[in-house]
Amino acid sequence: MQKQVSFKSSKGYLLKGILHVPKGQGPFPTVIVQHGFKSNHHNSLIKSIAQNLEKSGFIVLRFTFSGHKPSGGNYKNVLVSQFVKDVKAAINFLLTIPQVNKFRIGMAGHSMGAFTALISSNIHKKYIRSAVSVSSLYDPGAVVNSYKREKKIDEVGEGYWMISGFKVTAKHFDERMYLRKKYLVGGIYCPVLIIHGNKDKRVQIKDAYSIYKLLNGPKELKIIKGADHNFHNQKHARRVVNLTAKWFKKYLVVAD
C-alpha cells in the first residue's frame, strides 16, 4: 500500500512524501529513502528502491527535502544541516505510526541524500540501525570542479552560485566539509553498505573508498561496473535496488 503523506520540518515547512506499508500486521522494519541534489521523492531510482523494500516487508518513507518541490522552503538556501533536521522530522513522523518497528529503522540515500544518510547515522544514532549510501561524495571540492569542467557553475555574487540553472548558497559545499570532519570521520558505527558506479563522472570513485575506510561497524563496498552517477541503465539500477534490499534484510530484520 502506498499513500501520500506530509509532515512539518523544524522550520515549519511542509515536507511531502510517499509512505509504503506492506501487507500484514507489523510491526515492520522501516527505511527512510532520500533523493539527491535537485531531485525529489519521485526520482525513479528512489521509487524503485522503495517499492522493492515494500515488497520485501519493510515500511518505507520516501520524502522530499526542504527547498525541493513539492516540499516547502527556498532552494537557494538549502544546507545539508537542514536536511539532517528534515530526517529527524521524518523519524518523528514514523514514530507516530503503530506498524513501525521503532528499534529497526534504517536509511538509504542517493548522492546528496546518501551523504545526508551517513551524517544522520551519526547524529541520529539513537534511531538509525543501518544505512545504504549510493553515490555519496566525500570531497565537495571535487564535485564543484566537476561542475566547473562542464561549465555548469557560475558565481553570481552575494555568496551564491548558479549550478545548472539553480541558485544555491556557496555555504552549501563549505558546510559539507565541516559536517564531513565533525560527523563522518570516525563517527559511524552502524552497519553501512557503500554502492558506487565506476563510471560516475559527478562523484569520483575514490570518494567511495575514502568513506568506506572511515566506517567503524560492519561494512561492505560494492562497485558497479559501467554505472554512472544516477544509474540510468536499468540493469545497474536493478543491481542497486537488489543490493539495498539484501542489506536491510540482513541488518534490520529480526530473526524468528
Care to describe what's here?
There is one protein chain. The protein is an alpha/beta fold and 256 residues long. The chain has a single domain (2-138, 188-251), classed as Rossmann fold, CATH 3.40.50. The protein is built from seven helices and eleven strands. The chain has helices spanning 44-55, 80-94, 112-123, 140-149, 171-184, 206-214, 234-251; strands at residues 2-8, 14-20, 28-34, 59-63, 100-110, 128-134, 153-157, 160-163, 166-169, 192-197, 219-224. An eight-stranded mixed sheet has the order 1-2-4-3-5-6-10-11, with helices on both faces. The protein has a three-stranded antiparallel sheet with strand order 7-8-9. Strand 7 (153-157) and strand 8 form a beta hairpin. Helix 3 packs across helix 5 (171-184). The longest helix has 18 residues, at 234-251. The protein is globular.
What's the structural blueprint in terms of helices and strands?
Elements: E1 2-8, E2 14-20, E3 28-34, H1 44-55, E4 59-63, H2 80-94, E5 100-110, H3 112-123, E6 128-134, H4 140-149, E7 153-157, E8 160-163, E9 166-169, H5 171-184, E10 192-197, H6 206-214, E11 219-224, H7 234-251
Parallel strand pairs: 3-4, 3-5, 5-6, 6-10, 10-11
Antiparallel strand pairs: 1-2, 2-4, 7-8, 8-9
Helix pairs in contact: 1-7, 2-3, 3-5
